[in-house]
Specification:
Blueprint lengths: L21 E3 L7 E3 L1 H27 L3
Antiparallel strand pairs: 1-2
Length: about 60
């Protein structure tokens, strides 16, 4: 997923896209705010992939029994 952190527009640095998993918190220079919906989608995707890989491994093992 790109970008991981929020960033300003390249041509107009005063405009921020709010497109990262971590948005910039303008209250502090180095503070970031997690974009919860993106984080949940990533975790859900990881779980789907993990489940798929486990099923694939189980089917592979069953070939030998």
């Amino acid at each position: 997923m790109y970008p991981v952190i929020d960033r300003p527009d390249w041509d107009h640095t005063e405009i921020w896209h709010h497109s990262g998993i971590w948005d910039h918190d303008f209250a502090s220079k180095y503070s970031r705010v997690l974009h919860l919906e993106s984080a949940v989608a990533i975790v859900n995707g990881q779980q789907l992939i993990s489940k798929s890989q486990k099923n694939k491994f189980a089917r592979l093992l069953m070939r030998y029994f």
